[in-house]
Amino acid sequence: MLVPRTLAPNLTVMTLQHGEFDLTTENPSLMTLVCFYRGLHCPVCGNYLKELERLTPAFQERGVRTIAMSSDGEERARQMADKIGAEHLRIGYGLSLSVARQWGLYISASRGKTSIGIEEPELFSEPGVFLIRPDQTVYWLSVQSMPFARPIFAEMVQALDFVIKNDYPARGEYTGAV
User: Fold this and answer.
1) What is the pLDDT of residues 76-134, one digit of tens each?
2) N or C end: fewer C-beta atoms under 10 angstroms in the chain?
């Protein structure tokens, strides 16, 4: 289980337009927002990533770099990028499911075609959103077993203003006896 204030697992994927993404070489002034999405087959993901694309400049103004990734291959990732009009948001592809599991993501098996008529991969990860500090420690995380009711990016932008103003620490770090 990932815990805030601990080191995030290694994370390296190819991106559509920015070469290799390697979390260990990221150097944001505040944090990196890593959004794991289910894949092209997911209509909820398309809408969710459109919102992240729209708000990526607001995250950047606060020192947060953004990337969205899935286990889809390059072609399906490109189709998703086209679908959401990705201009600011980096799109990664080829996420290994073993790495997804290290990040605490749930893995689902295919149930065939989705409501938008796209075949699900045999196995794929469910969504997760993480804020990672430049020292590679986890600041904030949300992992889900379903595609619905995800964290709202506009609220995250507002929360970052509070975090920055108050030097608010990562919470949820206690792992001792209770």
Assistant:
1) 999 999 999 999 999 999 999 999 999 999 999 999 999 999 999 999 999 999 999 99
2) C
Task: Domain of residue 109: give its range.
Answer: 12-166
Q: Tell me if the pTM is above 0.70.
A: yes
**What's the pLDDT at 48?**
98
pLDDT in tens, 78-92: 999 999 999 999 999
- Identify whether 87 is part of a domain: yes
Residue 25, amino acid: T
CATH at 88: 3.40.30.10
How far apart are the C-alpha atoms of 153 and 142, rounded to whole Å?
A: 12
**Tokens at 120, concatenated:** 């699900």
Our count of domains for the chain comes to: 1
Residue from 36, 49, 111, 120 nearest 84 by CA? 49
Measure the CA–CA gap between 150 and 128, rounded to whole angstroms. 8
